[in-house]
Specification:
The complex is a heterodimer of chains A (about 150) and B (about 190). Chain A has helices spanning about 5-10, 25-45, 55-70, 85-95, 100-115, 115-149. By secondary structure, chain A is mainly α. In chain A, about 5% of the residues are buried. Chain B has two domains: about 5-90, Orthogonal Bundle (Rna Polymerase Sigma Factor, Chain: A), CATH 1.10.1740.10; about 105-190, Winged helix-like DNA-binding domain superfamily/Winged helix DNA-binding domain (Arc Repressor Mutant, subunit A). Chain B is about 75% helix and about 0% strand. Chain B is built from nine helices and no strands. Chain B has helices spanning about 5-15, 20-40, 45-60, 70-90, 105-115, 120-130, 135-145, 150-155, 160-190. Chain B is elongated, with a radius of gyration of 19 Å. The chains are: A mainly alpha (about 150), B mainly alpha (about 190). The interface of A and B includes residues 4, 5, 16 and 17 of A.
Chain lengths: ~150, ~190
């Protein structure tokens, strides 16, 4: 800067600079807090579940298959006199030696029967609370999104 | 890092302390608003634009690399937003002609003007600055008031350094010329 520029700078600095209305910072920060909330919400939306949809489908299919199998192999359902295709299949399945499996089942049920009823109640209550929490969290986030938009 | 440094607050915001951004708003609101007002002319529009600038700066804070001053980065957001708003309205800036005032005349004018009352000085300077084309007002404010270098102003406005030099030179001479006219008029009315 030369001398003329420095002199002119002194003059210009005499002018008081314009300022916005009172509460400007508050207004800006309100908008920024809303912006930050949206950004946080977007992060939650990016959440990937630990168990994928595919795994869930396989698990449910396996469970349904087990239930069907248990129903079909119960003594009431085997009253058909003439062996059909289904009974042939189930008959061959019955021939499988299931003793070790039933022994294991008895051991496991024996273990569970020793657990007091109160423990089951606590577990059920915890699961209900966890589900409720999940539901409320989702509800709160969708409400926040509506308010911001 | 000093607590008064811009980078201190920028880092705090990046780490999730959103409230730390208010320190930057407090520090730069006047200049951001003033630049917007010089370009847009209306106070409501300038205030809206200043708010938008800070929100945009917050959103883009991760892209600020610290290569330039935070103020330079912030003013470039303000300037570009105002220019695109003016382009929408198809408003163009006029350019100043070369003033036939010598450097000696400028110095004499400065000495003469310095002897006038402080409140009159501010009044005449504000009027003279307001009579410059809008973009020249911004250049004068950034260079003389905010002490931004020619290179920094080039980053803010996208103009070349040589163009900025010429524009600032012409704006300064035009302001001295306007001050000269105003003081002459006053003397004339007193007589």
């Amino acid at each position: 800067m030369n001398k003329i520029d420095k002199q002119f700078e002194q003059l210009i600095k005499e002018i008081s600079i314009d300022s916005p209305s009172k509460g400007f910072t508050l207004k800006v920060m309100d908008r920024i807090q809303a912006e930050a909330a949206v950004q946080k919400h977007t992060l939650l939306e990016d959440y990937q579940p630990v168990i994928s949809k595919r795994t869930w489908i396989i698990l449910i299919a396996a469970f349904v298959f087990m239930v069907v199998y248990v129903i079909m192999s119960s003594p009431e359902s085997s009253t058909v006199k003439e062996p059909g295709l289904w009974s042939t299949v189930t008959g061959s399945l019955q021939k499988i030696d299931t003793k070790p499996v039933s022994n294991l089942w008895q051991t496991v049920t024996g273990m569970f029967s020793s657990i007091p009823t109160m423990a089951y109640l606590i577990l059920t209550a915890s699961l209900v609370l966890w589900t409720l929490d999940l539901f409320l969290t989702r509800f709160r986030h969708s409400a926040a999104k509506v308010q911001i938009s | 890092m000093n607590k008064t440094d811009d980078l201190y607050y920028i880092e705090a915001v990046r780490k999730g302390n959103v409230a730390a951004f208010s320190a930057l708003v407090d520090r730069y609101q006047n200049l951001v608003y003033s630049l917007a007002l010089k370009l847009l002319k209306k106070t409501e529009e300038a205030e809206e634009m200043a708010q938008d600038t800070f929100v945009k700066a917050y959103q883009k804070l991760d892209t600020y690399e610290g290569k330039s001053k935070f103020s330079t980065w912030l003013y470039s957001i303000t300037y570009n937003a105002c220019i695109s708003e003016l382009r929408k309205r198809r408003i163009q800036f006029s350019s100043l002609e070369d003033q036939r005032i010598s450097d000696q005349d400028e110095m004499r004018m400065h000495d003469y003007f310095s002897e006038t009352k402080k409140e009159d000085q501010e009044k005449y300077l504000s009027i003279a600055l307001g009579k410059l084309p809008e973009d020249d007002q911004v250049l004068v404010t950034l260079y003389y008031y905010e002490n931004q270098s020619m290179d920094e102003i080039s980053v803010i406005t996208g103009l070349t350094v040589s163009n900025i030099k010429v524009k600032i030179h012409r704006a300064r001479k035009r302001m001295y010329s306007l001050l000269h006219e105003m003081l002459h008029e006053e003397i004339y009315t007193l007589l």
